[in-house]
Amino acid sequence: MMGEVELHFAYRAGQEEKELVLTGDEHISLLCDHDWMIEAVENIVKNAFDHTEKGNFVWIEWKKSASVVQIIIKDNGSGIQPEDLHHIFKRFYRSRFSKDKQGIGLGLPLAKMIVESHNGTIEVDSTLGAGTTFTLSFLIPTKL
Ligand SMILES: Nc1ncnc2c1ncn2[C@@H]1O[C@H](COP(=O)(O)OP(=O)(O)OP(=O)(O)O)[C@@H](O)[C@H]1O
Ligand SMILES: [Mg+2]
């Protein structure tokens, strides 16, 4: 699935001279709705491309521990303004600092809805001027 996301952005990465890097064990799997999960991840990766510049990186990493599968999307772009951090998952929220970028403010709310409907959580960590990390976590159901 992450390979499909990579393909989707390969051309854009080349055009914008940004590096898209994937890391993860190919044997890790996640029981999910394939198309919706790709939609969620692509919305987050699209934001990463929207808020990085030439020479920047976008990383997609996935890993599995005993009870959790995580997908981590990280960039070393502009970062998110602290005043925006608590609002970015709200529908139609657009930062006053992003008025120059196109968008309607639905990408992250949709991603959150998709992740949560898979019983997952979505967390953001961002440092202004340094970059942003989104972490999607899914509990692996334990067998009874
Ligand atoms: N990786 C990121 N780096 C910096 N800012 C981000 C990043 N991801 C999200 N944001 C901020 O969060 C806001 C909300 O993102 P969201 O994807 O919901 O809407 P949008 O990208 O503005 O519009 P849409 O996705 O509907 O086209 C963005 O406008 C931007 O200000
Ligand atoms: Mg978006």
TrEMBL record:
Pfam families found in the cross-reference section: HATPase_c
Q: Name its cellular compartments.
A: Membrane
Catalysed reactions, semicolon-separated: ATP + protein L-histidine = ADP + protein N-phospho-L-histidine
According to its UniProt record, the EC number is 2.7.13.3
Which residues does the UniProt record annotate as the domain Histidine kinase? 1-142
Protein name according to UniProt: histidine kinase
Key words of the record: Kinase, Phosphoprotein, Transferase, Two-component regulatory system
Signal sequence extent: none
